[in-house]
């Protein structure tokens, strides 16, 4: 089978190789992969910009969709369409940037009926995480009537999907982006306004004018700290990413004087039983236009070049990889 293989001796190497399928790791289901994607974490792994992989050789790719080729798990039969996001696949276990993967059946989700494999991967880990962020705002009591929602890293995979989901749910969304050229794209997804990230990446006062009833943050750092200082009384912030910085130079003031909530969002180990309903919701909410606007397609042998572009912030929306 063809796979992107990462290896590390003195330096990291990444190349497309022919691998004997007998080398696939243990697992009870083998999936013929049709589509995988390029997420921020994949780009960190493939370029070596982040310590994502600790055990080499490794096939990266934290998500995939395809068809069951062989199954020892009674929940899955040969020919069934499935998808996978998270569970350490592409980090600890060989991942989706290959023609086949052998995984635990526990990690697979049946493909929702009204979704194609390609659409599922345009959503991918990023879109699944965006849905979790929206649900975190809902759990915090944020409603479409309660005010504006800010979404950072707006042109990226999580940001683009979050804007679309929020807009479809009737929320008023303000996109925060470092790329003014993407204005029309962000408006087309449903943002009502776009603000430059430069308005938010300078140190802020502990409390600023109250502007947001909710925030979905994918970048961390000073931007997140500034937004926390601007959240309205009782507001909720869902933080899932660190595209700018892993640090959070904030004060406790917005928490103790404005009763705000900071909810972390983690997509990797969401229990299997909860996943089908989240995917059903994504399928119902995302309009057909989303897949055209936010999805672009590359081949497996273009992944390395595109991973470098993603790290340099030269990619818009989601990138799906046609594997076979
Ligand atoms: P993308 O690369 O697709 O998007 C990231 C976006 O962030 C870019 O498009 C850009 O938007 C903005 N950005 C990039 N670099 C910077 C910077 N230095 N300063 C400020 N903004 C920046 O990544 P994803 O959307 O897939 O992921 C976003 C984050 O969420 C990542 O940190 C990723 O690791 C994390 N993540 C976490 C998950 C979880 O389970 N917690 C799951 C999935 C992702 P613009 O050009 O509009 O400014």
TrEMBL record:
<dbReference type="InterPro" id="IPR051397">
    <property type="entry name" value="Zn-ADH-like_protein"/>
</dbReference>
<protein>
    <submittedName>
        <fullName>Polyketide synthase family protein</fullName>
    </submittedName>
</protein>
<dbReference type="GO" id="GO:0043957">
    <property type="term" value="F:acryloyl-CoA reductase (NADPH) activity"/>
</dbReference>
<dbReference type="InterPro" id="IPR013149">
    <property type="entry name" value="ADH-like_C"/>
</dbReference>
<dbReference type="InterPro" id="IPR020843">
    <property type="entry name" value="ER"/>
</dbReference>
<dbReference type="InterPro" id="IPR036291">
    <property type="entry name" value="NAD(P)-bd_dom_sf"/>
</dbReference>
<dbReference type="InterPro" id="IPR011032">
    <property type="entry name" value="GroES-like_sf"/>
</dbReference>
<dbReference type="Pfam" id="PF00107">
    <property type="entry name" value="ADH_zinc_N"/>
</dbReference>
<dbReference type="InterPro" id="IPR013154">
    <property type="entry name" value="ADH-like_N"/>
</dbReference>
<dbReference type="Pfam" id="PF08240">
    <property type="entry name" value="ADH_N"/>
</dbReference>
<feature type="domain" description="Enoyl reductase (ER)">
    <location>
        <begin position="7"/>
        <end position="321"/>
    </location>
</feature>
<dbReference type="InterPro" id="IPR014188">
    <property type="entry name" value="Acrylyl-CoA_reductase_AcuI"/>
</dbReference>
């Amino acid at each position: 089978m063809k796979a992107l293989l990462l290896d590390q001796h003195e330096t990291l190497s990444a190349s497309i190789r022919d691998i004997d399928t007998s080398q696939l790791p243990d697992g009870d289901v083998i999936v013929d992969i049709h589509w995988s994607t390029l997420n921020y974490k994949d780009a960190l792994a493939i370029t070596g910009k982040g310590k994502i992989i600790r055990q080499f050789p490794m096939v990266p790719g934290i998500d995939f969709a395809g068809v069951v080729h062989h199954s020892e798990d009674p929940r899955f039969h040969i020919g069934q369409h499935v998808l996978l996001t998270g569970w350490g696949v592409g980090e600890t276990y060989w991942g989706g940037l290959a023609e086949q993967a052998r995984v635990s059946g526990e990690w697979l989700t049946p493909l929702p009926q009204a979704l194609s494999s390609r659409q599922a991967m345009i959503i991918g880990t990023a879109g699944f995480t965006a849905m979790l962020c929206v649900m975190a705002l809902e759990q915090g009591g944020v409603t479409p009537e309660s005010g504006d929602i800010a979404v950072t890293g707006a042109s990226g995979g999580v940001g683009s999907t979050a804007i679309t989901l929020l807009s479809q749910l009737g929320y008023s969304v303000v996109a925060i982006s470092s790329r003014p050229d993407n204005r029309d794209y962000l408006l087309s997804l449903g943002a009502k306004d776009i603000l430059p990230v430069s308005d938010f990446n300078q140190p802020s006062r502990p409390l600023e004018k109250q502007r947001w009833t909710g925030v979905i943050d994918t970048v961390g750092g000073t931007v997140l700290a500034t937004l926390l200082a601007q959240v309205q009384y009782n507001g909720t912030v869902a933080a899932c990413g660190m595209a700018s910085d892993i640090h959070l130079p904030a004060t406790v003031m917005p928490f103790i004087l404005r009763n705000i909530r900071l909810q972390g969002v983690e997509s990797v180990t969401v229990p299997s039983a909860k996943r089908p309903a989240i995917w059903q919701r994504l399928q119902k909410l995302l309009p057909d236009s989303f897949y055209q606007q936010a999805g672009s397609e590359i081949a497996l042998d273009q992944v390395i070049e595109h991973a470098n572009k993603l790290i340099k912030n030269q990619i818009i929306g989601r990138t799906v990889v046609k594997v076979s």
